[in-house]
């Protein structure tokens, strides 16, 4: 270290590797023969940084051949504004003895929600209220970190902005925030507490004072701290002036010209006209370091270059290239005359993949290739948690476990998901989708026989497919009894029953009691046993304890979103056990780390850097007046993270051309790299071979397009008992008949399905059957059948009025036709044609005034057109006429002269607005349709033809031979329709 007077401030260049270079300098300077480095105190920004330093000390010890080393004491002084965790600060100095305790952050969140509800007339409720309370706390912390007192909101400059420039929206927000802050400060004062950020500032001030008054005898070194919080900056200044103190900064560019340094802007300079000017280059990676130096009162020329390099150092010219890469706008003009040696970035590769999956595959391949080299360390750095998860999954194919050190939100873990599913069950009154998601969750039924549990859950699922039943457990229990799993479901119902039927809001603590109890009843101890379960237990206990002291009420409907928001703020990090030479980091975790190969992935705008978010409560002009850096400040932090990563010996910059929502824009940082390298060097740095391998590794050899399916089952398989509706399918799309009847693959309804024509038709037929039998009025029967179906109230409200209008039309139509008498309804009949049984159910058989018979078919949708009937795609009425003529339907036989479709569809000419009749015959004034005397003979001929070709013959069951025929998409995937449709003529 230097013996010169003044602050001892150093910078470690990006290419030297911060942690390894720091250790290489600390060990010879501070190690003691007996105590090692135990007398040294290292001030570090985060727990992750402390772990990085431990690893660097171990590497140094191994490299130098030391048998062992006592490491220094490490104290975390991370910035709350960056969501870091504070460790105990300077306990040996006794700095915290006289400082009031910090307010519990969870209690503050809930108390702010209470205050907002009490003080704002139009305050939101439920989850939105809790979300606003959390955002309010973030704004308070942001001001506290900058040491901005509440009364600053009433200073002249802010008031002038308030009156002259702010819209009513921002005025209301500022007024509400100021009022709320005063209430909260009163609450804090009454409890004798401080906000955590305010207490941290007080600790910094007290520690700095004690250091100045009584300098410690042991050395203190602050390393890697880049937060520019004023109180922390003053503490760093004090540390830098201690007899055995020093401050070491990462990647401060000492080679940058003064004119470029000045172009960064005022950066908090109190001597400037405004500490944060509109033209400040806040997105530059050096801006926050200039802000820190200004607040420390240290000039850049007082900062010295660190004298050691680390084990994983990169080429020295890389630092010059990084400096050129991030030049501010005016200085960037120098790129025109920049020599090639200042542009070149040897060891840096570029990869642009087609999509996130391909990018993850490419990154995994890079990791796999690097591990072939002994002792080579690899770090994947990305702020995209989804991409990090994909990379980890791809690495598992080679049995490489690479844990994401940034962790996963609690809401995305197995234990957290159980609680959220229970909350959704409570919010939706045990609706089928959340209920079955809960029952089929991996933790549900832990301790039970898993196979039996899943069999029971799937049996219940089959019974619940279709439109949603009425809310509550009674309809579900009835469905479970029909599925044969009634006893199994009774235990589940007992576990979840306390969550249901809460019409009034409950306190959050009460909800948490119910959820924890239900989770344990369903999952046993398994819900708490792993790292996510332990995190969930701590989360619930902390929230439950504070919500009992500060009650907040929630409706059941708000419970899932409120819990999800809170759980997303809890990171569950994996236990130890991953590959020792592979690490996946978020941006915060990657700071100070170094590896031989660093892969910076997800370099798209909006991801790296993230999209700046405007403060929801205070207008940008107000923040600027208060002296708070703008929203773009975080872009500069992201740029500094990338600059630090670029110093590694080998670097790969990766992005995907598309993300899940569409085309993606390359990161502004990546565009700068391309511009700096120019076209030729960019092309040379682009790794097309790896991208091609990533694209090909999971791609099978090219497969020729599938041909139009033409299955030919055996004669034994063809002999079927055929219904009149199946006959229509057989003629229009033989493959559909084959899949449904011969392969026995009926279509499964969706869970919570929208009621379709089949459901509506079944309900209407059941009501009309009972009505014709004289079992009640149409209204009474509709209520009874909807109740028997356990139809959901919303479904009844939407469908019943329309159904009743159509049923009333049928009633009026029958009364209006004198002499027309229904003889049979929902009656069955069958005949044998060429030894094949043809059967069907007639919706209604009427005796007409002239004594002839009429066949009526009800349609909830649009009836078949005359063309469809003529082409043989809708033979149902005609085939029923054949059964009536050659056999009987419900004991009635004879030749029918009238064939009608009675539709429930809309009809403006009807008194009820619904219902009309059509016939496929050419009668009266109709100009299309089949002649009455030709209808049954043509139907007979088409029936015989179908039997001869497909049932008794060897005709293939060709998929979609009649494109103009009415069809369904049920079996499109099975027949691989998209692979061959439209290619038939080309192949011919």
Q: Can you tell me about this structure?
A:
The chain is of the alpha/beta class. 46% of the residues lie in helices and 11% in strands. It has 39 helices and 23 strands. The strands form 6 sheets. Strands 3-2-4-5-1-6 form a 6-stranded parallel sheet. Helix 8 (230-240) links the parallel strand 4 (220-223) and strand 5. Helix 15 packs antiparallel against helix 16, helix 30 crosses helix 36 and helix 32 (757-772) crosses helix 33. It starts with 8 loop residues before the first strand and ends with a helix. Residues 79-93 have low confidence and may be disordered.
Structural class: alpha/beta
Fraction of residues in β-strands: 5-15%
Q: Can you tell me the residue ranges where pLDDT is under 50 for at least 5 consecutive residues?
A: 79-93
Radius of gyration, taken over Cα atoms and rounded to an integer in Å: 38 Å
Oligomer: single chain
Mean pLDDT: 86
Q: What is the strand arrangement across the widest sheet?
A: 3-2-4-5-1-6
Cα end-to-end separation: 85 Å
Q: Count the beta strands.
A: 23
Main sheet overview: 6 strands, parallel
The coarse overall form would be elongated
Helical run tally: 39
Give a short synopsis of this structure.
By secondary structure, the chain is α/β, with parallel strands linked by helices. 46% of the residues lie in helices and 11% in strands.
């Amino acid at each position: 270290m230097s013996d010169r007077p003044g602050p001892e401030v150093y910078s470690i260049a990006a290419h030297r590797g911060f942690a390894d270079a720091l250790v290489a300098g600390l060990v010879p300077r501070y190690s003691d023969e007996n105590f090692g480095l135990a007398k040294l105190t290292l001030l570090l920004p985060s727990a992750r940084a402390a772990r990085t330093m431990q690893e660097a000390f171990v590497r140094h010890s191994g490299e130098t051949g030391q048998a062992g080393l006592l490491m220094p004491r490490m104290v975390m002084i991370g910035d709350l504004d960056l969501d870091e965790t504070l460790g105990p600060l300077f306990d040996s100095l006794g700095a915290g003895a006289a400082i009031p305790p910090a307010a519990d952050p969870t209690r503050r969140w809930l108390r702010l929600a209470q205050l907002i509800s009490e003080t704002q007339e139009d305050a939101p409720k439920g989850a939105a209220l809790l979300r606003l309370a959390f955002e309010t706390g973030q704004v308070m912390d942001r001001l506290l970190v900058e040491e901005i007192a509440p009364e600053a909101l009433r200073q002249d400059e802010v008031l002038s902005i308030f009156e002259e420039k702010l819209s009513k929206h921002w005025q209301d927000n500022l007024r509400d925030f100021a009022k709320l802050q005063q209430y909260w400060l009163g609450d804090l004062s009454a409890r004798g507490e401080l906000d955590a950020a305010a207490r941290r500032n007080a600790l910094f001030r007290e520690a700095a004072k004690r250091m100045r008054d009584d300098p410690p005898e042991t050395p203190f070194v602050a390393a890697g701290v880049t937060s520019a919080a004023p109180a922390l900056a003053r503490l760093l200044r004090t540390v830098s002036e201690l007899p055995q103190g020093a401050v070491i900064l990462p990647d401060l560019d000492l080679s940058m010209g003064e004119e470029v340094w000045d172009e960064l802007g005022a950066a908090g300079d109190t001597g400037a006209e405004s500490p944060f000017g509109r033209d400040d280059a806040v997105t530059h990676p050096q801006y926050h370091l200039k802000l820190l130096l200004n607040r420390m009162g240290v000039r850049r020329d007082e900062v010295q270059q660190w004298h050691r390099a680390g084990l994983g150092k990169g080429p020295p010219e890389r630092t010059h290239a990084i400096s050129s890469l991030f030049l501010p706008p005016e200085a960037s003009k120098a790129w025109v005359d920049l020599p090639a040696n200042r542009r070149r970035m040897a060891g840096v590769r570029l990869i642009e993949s087609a999509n996130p999956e391909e990018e993850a595959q490419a990154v995994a391949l890079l990791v796999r290739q690097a591990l072939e080299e002994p002792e080579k360390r690899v770090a994947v750095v990305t702020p995209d948690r989804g991409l990090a998860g994909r990379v980890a999954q791809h690495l598992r194919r080679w049995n490489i476990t690479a844990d994401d050190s940034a962790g996963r939100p609690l809401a995305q873990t197995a234990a957290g998901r159980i609680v959220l599913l229970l909350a959704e069950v409570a919010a939706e009154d045990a609706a089928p989708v959340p209920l079955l998601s809960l029952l089929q969750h991996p933790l549900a039924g832990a301790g039970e026989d898993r196979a039996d549990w899943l069999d029971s859950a799937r049996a219940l699922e089959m019974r619940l497919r279709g439109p949603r039943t009425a809310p509550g457990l009674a309809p579900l229990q009835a469905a479970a009894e029909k599925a044969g799993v009634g006893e199994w479901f009774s235990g589940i119902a007992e576990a979840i029953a306390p969550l249901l039927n809460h019409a009034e809001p409950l306190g959050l603590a009460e909800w948490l009691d119910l959820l924890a109890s239900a989770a344990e009843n369903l999952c046993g101890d398994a819900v708490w046993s792993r790292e996510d379960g332990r995190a969930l237990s701590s989360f619930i206990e902390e929230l439950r304890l504070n919500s009992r002291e500060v009650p907040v009420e929630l409706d059941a409907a708000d419970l899932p979103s409120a819990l999800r928001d809170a759980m997303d703020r809890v990171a569950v990090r994996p236990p130890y056990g991953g590959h020792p030479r592979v690490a996946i980091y978020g941006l915060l975790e990657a700071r100070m780390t170094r590896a031989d190969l660093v892969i910076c992935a997800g370099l798209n705008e909006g991801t790296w850097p993230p999209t700046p978010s405007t403060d929801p409560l205070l207008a940008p002009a107000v923040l600027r007046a208060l002296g708070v850096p703008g929203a773009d400040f975080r872009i500069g932090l992201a740029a500094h993270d990338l600059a630090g990563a670029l110093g590694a010996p080998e670097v790969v910059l990766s992005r995907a051309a598309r993300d899940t929502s569409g085309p993606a824009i390359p990161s502004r940082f990546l565009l700068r790299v391309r511009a700096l390298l120019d076209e030729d060097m960019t092309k040379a740095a682009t790794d097309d071979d790896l991208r091609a391998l990533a694209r090909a590794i999971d791609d099978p050899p090219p497969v020729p397009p599938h041909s139009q399916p033409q299955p030919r089952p055996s004669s034994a398989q063809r002999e079927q008992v055929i219904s009149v509706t199946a006959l229509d399918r057989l003629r229009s799309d033989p493959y559909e008949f084959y899949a449904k009847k011969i392969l026995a693959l009926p279509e499964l309804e969706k869970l919570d399905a929208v009621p379709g024509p089949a459901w509506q038709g079944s309900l209407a037929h059941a009501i009309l059957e009972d009505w014709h039998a004289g079992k009640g009025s149409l209204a009474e029967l509709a209520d009874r059948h909807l109740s028997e179906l356990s139809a959901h109230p919303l479904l009844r409200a939407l469908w019943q009025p329309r159904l009743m209008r159509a049923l009333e039309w049928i009633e009026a139509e029958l009364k209006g036709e004198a002499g027309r008498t229904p003889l049979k309804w929902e009656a069955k009949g069958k005949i044998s044609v060429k030894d094949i049984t043809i059967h069907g159910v007639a919706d209604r058989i009427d005796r007409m005034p002239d004594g002839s018979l009429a066949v009526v078919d009800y349609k909830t949708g649009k009836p078949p057109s005359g063309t469809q009937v003529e082409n043989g795609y809708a033979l149902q009425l005609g085939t029923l006429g054949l059964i009536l003529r050659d056999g009987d339907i419900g004991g009635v036989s004879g030749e029918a002269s009238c064939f009608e479709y009675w539709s429930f569809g809309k009809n403006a000419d009807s008194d009820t607005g619904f219902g009309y009749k059509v016939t496929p015959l050419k009668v009266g004034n109709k100009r299309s349709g089949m002649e009455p005397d030709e209808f049954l003979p043509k139907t007979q001929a088409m029936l015989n033809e179908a039997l001869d070709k497909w049932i008794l013959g060897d005709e293939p069951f060709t998929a979609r031979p009649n494109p103009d025929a009415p069809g369904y998409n049920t079996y499109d995937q099975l027949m691989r329709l998209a692979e061959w449709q439209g290619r038939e003529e080309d192949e011919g």
